[in-house]
C-alpha cells in the first residue's frame, strides 16, 4: 500500500517536474538592478501617510466587512461615491476618435442616473460572488447621491459627494451617524482607504487618454446596435480591463464593464454600469452636504473634551471609591461600600468613569484613537464591575447558608442595583448595557433561589418577572446590534 | 528562513523599514525568479518582466503585509501568480493551447492515468514542452498556497516537515493541504483538457 503511494508520489513528481524543462535561470545582473528599483518603490510607498478620516473610513469598512452582503453593499456605496468625482476631476479626457469622444461627453453631461453592479470574482473557483446592484444619481454640477437600503449590520446608507469642492458625506441611517471627508476621495491615499480603493477603476475609466482605446466593433444589446471600445489601464494595485458599449448612432453609453485584476493578493472586482438614464430630473436638495438634523458627526471629538451634561453626585462618589478600593485589592471594603450606596438617591456621574458617561453616539463622535482608548477603558471597567458583583453574590450566598437572609438580600440587591445602573441609559454603549444585564441576571437568579428558600412568593414572582424582562431586553439589544 | 527572521522582516515591512525590505529581497529574489520561470517556461524577457512587476507590486503593498495570512514566500508567490495570470491574459494563451491540443490528441495510451499518477507517462511525453505547458497552465489555476506547496514537495523535493516550518503549520496540516492541492491540480488539469478539446475559450 505504502509502495503504491510512493510510486504515485514519484509519478506525480515527474509530472510536475516537467515545469523545470527549459526554465530560465536567474539573471543576477537584472535582479541587482531590480533591487534598486524596488527599494525606491518601497520607500516611496512606505512614507505615504493616511489621514485620520481615512483611518476612520477604513474602520467603518472593517465593521461592514463582517457581513458579505453588507460588504458588497458598502463597497457599492463607496464606489458610487467616487463615480461623481470622475466628472469633475477626471476632466482631462483627451480623445482623438470622434466616436469615443462622443461617448465620453455623455458621462460629463447633465444629470443622469444608472445601475451599478458590484461583484468580487472568486478566480480560483471560476465564479463571481453575489452581485449587488443599486441606482446612482449624478447631478449636473458634479454632485452625486447614492442610497443603499440594504438591511445589514450597517443598515441603510446614503452617500453624497460634491466634487467641485472635493467634499463628501456618508450617512449611516440606522445609528444616525455622518462621516465627512473634506478632500477629494480621489486623493492618492493608498489601498488602505476604501474610497481610494473604489475610486481607482472608475477614475481610470474617466481619465482615458488619446489613442489608448481599442475598437471592439459592433454588436447588439437588447436589439440595439452598439459600438464597443476597450481600454487597459494600470495603477499600483490593479490592472483594469475596461469595456464600453455605446449606441451606434448617438454614442450614448449602454453598458460599461470594468474588470479590476489585482496586481497582488486581493480579489478581482467587477463593476457593471448599465441602464443609463441620461434625461433624468433630480432635486438638487438631495445632494446637500449639510449634516442632517439629529445626525452625529463621526470621528471628530477628543475623549477628554466629551460633553457631559451632569455633575457627579454623592452616591456616584461611592461607586468611584468602590472601584478604587477594588483596584487596591481591598475587596471586602469595596463590596461593603457598594452595599452602603443609597440607591433611592440620585446617582449621576461626570465625564468619568467613561463606562457611565459614554453613549453609542458619543463613541462614534470620537477620533479613532480615542475610540480605542475609550473601549479599552470601558472593557476594563466592565470586567471590574462584574468581579465586584460576583463578590457581592458570593457574600450573599454565604449569608444564605448561614440563614442570615436579610443580610443575603442586601448583598444581592447591591449587585442587582449595580447591574441596573449600568443598564439604565438606553443610549449607553451596548457593551455597558449588556454587562449590566448580565449582572442583573446572575443576581436575580440568586434572589429567586433565596425567595424560594424563604417562601416569599411575592418577591419571588417579582424577581422572576424582572429576570424575564432582563433576558428579553438582552435579546433585543443583541438583535439590534446584529442588524436583525 | 527561520520564524524569528521572518517575523522581524514582517514587522520591519509594516513599519516601512528599508533594511527589512532589502533582507526580504535578498532572501526571495531568486526564489521568486525560479518560481516564475517554472510557470512561464522559456521566455527570459517575460520572466524578467513578471519578476519585476511582482517585486514592484510587493514594494507598494509591503506595509500591508499580514503574517496571519501566510508566510512571506506565499505572499510573494501569490503576487507573482497574479502577475503571470495578467501576462497570459494579454498574450492570448489560445495560441499556445492550439498547439498543445494537437499534440495531446495525437498521443496514444491512457492519458488520464498519467495525470492521476496511476501509470508512468512515457519518457518522451515527460520530455515534451507541450506537457510542461499544460502542467504550467493547470498550476496557474491553483491558489498561490497550493501552487507553492506542490512545487515545494514535488519539484523542490522539500520534506513535509520543512514545508510545515515554512508555512508555520503542523506537518499533518501540510499533508492534508497537499492532498487537497493534488486533487485540485488534477481537477484543473482535467478541466483544461476538456475545455481545450471542446475548443472553448481557456482563460487563465
Notable features of this structure?
heterodimer; A: 484 residues; alpha+beta; outer membrane lipoprotein receptor (LolB), chain A; 13-stranded mixed β-sheet; B: 204 residues; mainly alpha; Rna Polymerase Sigma Factor, Chain: A; Arc Repressor Mutant, subunit A; 2 domains; 11 helices; globular; disordered C terminus
Account of the 3D structure:
The complex is a heterodimer of chains A (484) and B (204). Chain A is of the alpha+beta class. Chain A has helices at residues 2-16, 28-46, 52-64, 68-89, 98-107, 194-206, 314-327, 331-339, 354-357, 360-365, 368-401, 405-423, 430-454, 457-481; strands spanning 112-122, 127-128, 132-139, 143-148, 157-162, 167-172, 177-181, 214-221, 224-234, 238-247, 253-262, 268-277, 296-297. In chain A, strands 1, 2, 3, 4, 5, 6, 7, 8, 9, 10, 11, 12 and 13 form a 13-stranded mixed beta sheet that branches. In chain A, helix 4 crosses helix 6 (194-206) and helix 8 crosses helix 11. The radius of gyration of chain A is 31 Å and the shape is elongated. Residues 48-98 and 183-202 of chain A have low confidence and may be disordered. Chain B is an all-alpha fold and 204 residues long. Chain B folds into 2 domains: 1-91, Orthogonal Bundle (Rna Polymerase Sigma Factor, Chain: A); 92-204, Arc Repressor Mutant, subunit A, CATH 1.10.10.10. Chains A and B meet through helix 1 and helix 2 of A and helix 2, helix 3, helix 4, helix 8 and helix 9 of B.
Amino acid at each position: 500500500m505504502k509502495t503504491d503511494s510512493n510510486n504515485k508520489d514519484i509519478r506525480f513528481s515527474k509530472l510536475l517536474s516537467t515545469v523545470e524543462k527549459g526554465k530560465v535561470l536567474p539573471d543576477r545582473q537584472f535582479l541587482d538592478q531590480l533591487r534598486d528599483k524596488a527599494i525606491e518603490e518601497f520607500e516611496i510607498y512606505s512614507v505615504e501617510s493616511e489621514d485620520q478620516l481615512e483611518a476612520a473610513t477604513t474602520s467603518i469598512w472593517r465593521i461592514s466587512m463582517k457581513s458579505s452582503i453588507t460588504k458588497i453593499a458598502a463597497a457599492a456605496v463607496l464606489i458610487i461615491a467616487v463615480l461623481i468625482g470622475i466628472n469633475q476631476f477626471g476632466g482631462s479626457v483627451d480623445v482623438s476618435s470622434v466616436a469615443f469622444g462622443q461617448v465620453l461627453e455623455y458621462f460629463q453631461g447633465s444629470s443622469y442616473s444608472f445601475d451599478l453592479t458590484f461583484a468580487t470574482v472568486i478566480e480560483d473557483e471560476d465564479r463571481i460572488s453575489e452581485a449587488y446592484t443599486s441606482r446612482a444619481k449624478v447631478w449636473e454640477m458634479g454632485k452625486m447621491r447614492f442610497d443603499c437600503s440594504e438591511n445589514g449590520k450597517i443598515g441603510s446608507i446614503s452617500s453624497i459627494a460634491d466634487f467641485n469642492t472635493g467634499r463628501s458625506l456618508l450617512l449611516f441611517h440606522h445609528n444616525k451617524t455622518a462621516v465627512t471627508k473634506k478632500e477629494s476621495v480621489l486623493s492618492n491615499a493608498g489601498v488602505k482607504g476604501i474610497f481610494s480603493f473604489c475610486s481607482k477603476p472608475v477614475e481610470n475609466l474617466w481619465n482615458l487618454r488619446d489613442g489608448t482605446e481599442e475598437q471592439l466593433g459592433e454588436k447588439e444589446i437588447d436589439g440595439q446596435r452598439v459600438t464597443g471600445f476597450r481600454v487597459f489601464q494600470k495603477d499600483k494595485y490593479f490592472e483594469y480591463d475596461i469595456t464600453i458599449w455605446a449606441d451606434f448612432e448617438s454614442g450614448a453609453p449602454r453598458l460599461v464593464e470594468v474588470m479590476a485584476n489585482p496586481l497582488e493578493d486581493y480579489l478581482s472586482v467587477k463593476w457593471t454600469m448599465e441602464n443609463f438614464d441620461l434625461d433624468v430630473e433630480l432635486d438638487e436638495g438631495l445632494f446637500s452636504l449639510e449634516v442632517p438634523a439629529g445626525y452625529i458627526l463621526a470621528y471628530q471629538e477628543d475623549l477628554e473634551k466629551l460633553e457631559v451634561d451632569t455633575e457627579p453626585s454623592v452616591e456616584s462618589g461611592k461607586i468611584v471609591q468602590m472601584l478604587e478600593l477594588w483596584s487596591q485589592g481591598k475587596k471586602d471594603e469595596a463590596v461593603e461600600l457598594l452595599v452602603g450606596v443609597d440607591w433611592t438617591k440620585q446617582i449621576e456621574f461626570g465625564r468619568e468613569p467613561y463606562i457611565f458617561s459614554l453613549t453609542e453616539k458619543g463613541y462614534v463622535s470620537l477620533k479613532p484613537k480615542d475610540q480605542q482608548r475609550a473601549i479599552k477603558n470601558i472593557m476594563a471597567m466592565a470586567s471590574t464591575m462584574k468581579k465586584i458583583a460576583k463578590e457581592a453574590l458570593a457574600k450573599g450566598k454565604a449569608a444564605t447558608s448561614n440563614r442570615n437572609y436579610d443580610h443575603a438580600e442586601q448583598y444581592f440587591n447591591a449587585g442587582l442595583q449595580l447591574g441596573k445602573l449600568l443598564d439604565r441609559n438606553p443610549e449607553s454603549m451596548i457593551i455597558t448595557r449588556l454587562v449590566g444585564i448580565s449582572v442583573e441576571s446572575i443576581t436575580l437568579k440568586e434572589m429567586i433561589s433565596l425567595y424560594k428558600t424563604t417562601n416569599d412568593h411575592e418577591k419571588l414572582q417579582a424577581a422572576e418577572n424582572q429576570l424575564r424582562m432582563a433576558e428579553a431586553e438582552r435579546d433585543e439589544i443583541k438583535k439590534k446590534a446584529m442588524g436583525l | 528562513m527561520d520564524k524569528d527572521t521572518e517575523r522581524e522582516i514582517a514587522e520591519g515591512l509594516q513599519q516601512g523599514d528599508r533594511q527589512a525590505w532589502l533582507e526580504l529581497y535578498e532572501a526571495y529574489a531568486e526564489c521568486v525568479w525560479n518560481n516564475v520561470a517554472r510557470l512561464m517556461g522559456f521566455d527570459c524577457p517575460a520572466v524578467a518582466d513578471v519578476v519585476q512587476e511582482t517585486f514592484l507590486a510587493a514594494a507598494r503593498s509591503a506595509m500591508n503585509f499580514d503574517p496571519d495570512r501566510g508566510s512571506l514566500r506565499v505572499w510573494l508567490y501569490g503576487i507573482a501568480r497574479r502577475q503571470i495570470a495578467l501576462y497570459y491574459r494579454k498574450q492570448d494563451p489560445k495560441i499556445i493551447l492550439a498547439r498543445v491540443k494537437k499534440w495531446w490528441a495525437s498521443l496514444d495510451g491512457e492519458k488520464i492515468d498519467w495525470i492521476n499518477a496511476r501509470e508512468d507517462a512515457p519518457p518522451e511525453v515527460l520530455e515534451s514542452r507541450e506537457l510542461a505547458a499544460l502542467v504550467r497552465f493547470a498550476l496557474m489555476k491553483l491558489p498561490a498556497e497550493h501552487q507553492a506547496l506542490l512545487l515545494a514537495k514535488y519539484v523542490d523535493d522539500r520534506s513535509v516537515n520543512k514545508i510545515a516550518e515554512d508555512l508555520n503549520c503542523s506537518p499533518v496540516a501540510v499533508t492534508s493541504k497537499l492532498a487537497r492541492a493534488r486533487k485540485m491540480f488534477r481537477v484543473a488539469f482535467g478541466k483544461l483538457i476538456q475545455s481545450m478539446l471542446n475548443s472553448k475559450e481557456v482563460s487563465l
